[in-house]
Amino acid sequence: MAAFGSVFMPQMALSTFDGEGWSNITHVAADQLSLHPGAHVLHYASTCFEGLKAFRHEDGSVHIFRMDANIKRLSQSSRLLSLPSFSADMLETMITGIVRHYANEVPVPPGSMYIRPTHIGTEPAIGKAASPSKTSMLYILLSPVGDYFSGGARPLRLLLEENGSRCAPHMGMVKSGGNYASALQPILQARAAVNADQVLFCPGGDVQETGAANFLLIDGDEIITKALDTSFLHGITRDSLLTLARDMGMKVSERELSVDELLERVQKPTTEAALSGTAAVMTPVGTLIHNGTEHRVGSGTETPTITKLRGALNAIQWGKAADTHGWLTKV
Ligand SMILES: *Cc1c(COP(=O)(O)O)cnc(C)c1O
């Protein structure tokens, strides 16, 4: 099976902004892009993206999960990067148009069609280090993906990092390339030093998120995660899982969680911890590494609540449970 996100549909949806208006949406070859080497994005990182999925139901119909939330977030990222604005309607038309074009290629569950809207500043202007790009390009790539857990769900090892941060604090809510570049060295160092899968950034002792996923702690019938502020990425999977947890009668605590409290709570044999994000929905965390000490999370292997919550979310996505929150858009 090809690595996640390495296979693309041959065409993508495209629209460009020329400084005054958006071009008509076209479907063009997805394996090339014409860009001036002086384009703003290549020098000053005016880039943001989204990740969402389309699912095939048993009757053959295709449904996109929480598209409105991803559209809102790309608009927000674009605004915070001073990229040209676009209407939600235009982006929705682009997404549904290209997904409809490849409706027959959407894999059956547990596979799906991963959708990657991308917005970049294209103005050839290397003098614009401190000004926005007047022109931009918006395109939608599609990538069919299989079962994220096909190799089995090995619980993750996370290094708790209290001194560094994932990105500059005012960039936390922007789903932008520069933030991933910023987190890469800490992650590579953690891999080399302690064989960690990811770094859980905890600036000043405040448990925040990893390089590309939110962090959730489950203690009995309580689910604890950092309250929304501008310092981190507001995951749509996070929001969906919290909503389902409330539906199940769980107590949802969105608040500050310190490293000290986290390390104390994971000692209970029933505690569970997870990362949440569109790609894998919910991945169990088995080990936290802090100041050279390894802390097992709960039993280290039994994660019934994570299995239940992930199952509830997948059931809606796959059309096996009622979509009571109106999260699916049929294409
Ligand atoms: C994309 C992303 C998430 C998860 O967001 P979802 O909407 O749940 O996919 C969390 N943190 C970061 C830094 C991300 O880039």
TrEMBL record:
Its cofactor is pyridoxal 5'-phosphate. One of its GO terms (biological process) is amino acid biosynthetic process. Keywords: Amino-acid biosynthesis, Aminotransferase, Branched-chain amino acid biosynthesis, Pyridoxal phosphate, Transferase. GO terms for molecular function: branched-chain-amino-acid transaminase activity. It holds the Pfam family Aminotran_4. It comes from the Bacteria. The modification N6-(pyridoxal phosphate)lysine is found at residue 175. InterPro entries: Aminotrans_IV, Aminotransferase-like, B_amino_transII, BCAT-like_C, BCAT-like_N. NCBIfam families: ilvE_II (TIGR01123), PRK13357.1 (NF009897). Belongs to the class-IV pyridoxal-phosphate-dependent aminotransferase family. This is Branched chain amino acid aminotransferase.
